[in-house]
Amino acid sequence: MNFPEPFSGNGIYEEIPDPQIRVKSNHRISIIFSTVSHQSQNLILNEKQLQSAFTALGFPEQTLSQETIEALYSLGHSLSTESTNSPTLSSSPPGIDNYAFHSLWSILTTIQNIFHYLDLDHDMLISPFAQNQGFHQFTQYLNSTAPEGTLYPRQIPPKTTKRYYISPSAANSVTLDMFVCSCINQYQASRLLLKLDPFGTGVIQVDYEKFLYEVSELL
């Protein structure tokens, strides 16, 4: 089973060259998933276990706020219910399956790498201008891993791909947690647009009831 590779952090979207490295990485993620989810008979992660699994894989503890964890969990649950061999909402309690956890981890580490790539002075803060550049890079990543024939709605690309240091003030600085949460919300909105406008016409024609239902599924 193939999983999307994280963004490398050097401005280039490329797969890890050695297949053995990819296999070992996916195997480690699966082991962590199994270890953390062992208390669940359905082998799924709940919200609390999701944070524990991220920590076990090396993501800095207490970096993500409860709001961001909830956003990641909501995305992971959506991905789980969409996979063919996943428990459904009607037959099993909500949670995140192994495949969705792999995808979530790839997305999370990609967002983290983009943030560090833009954080030129390594103070764990970026400016709103850098955040907009990050949104564009994240959209590029999504499109690089999307199924053939589908594209996520693109943000207006920045005028330059160069990184410029703009000192973020205390009033408008963006933390890693804020950037992760914003990217996940952007991804969820893009998924909704793809679902309602699968042919990319730029026009959505849907009744209020269906629209509210689809939005509620993402929350």
TrEMBL record:
InterPro entries on file: EF-hand-dom_pair
Domain of life the protein comes from: Eukaryota
SUPFAM superfamilies with a match to the protein in the record: EF-hand (SSF47473)
Official protein name in the record: EF-hand domain-containing protein
Biological source species: Magnusiomyces paraingens
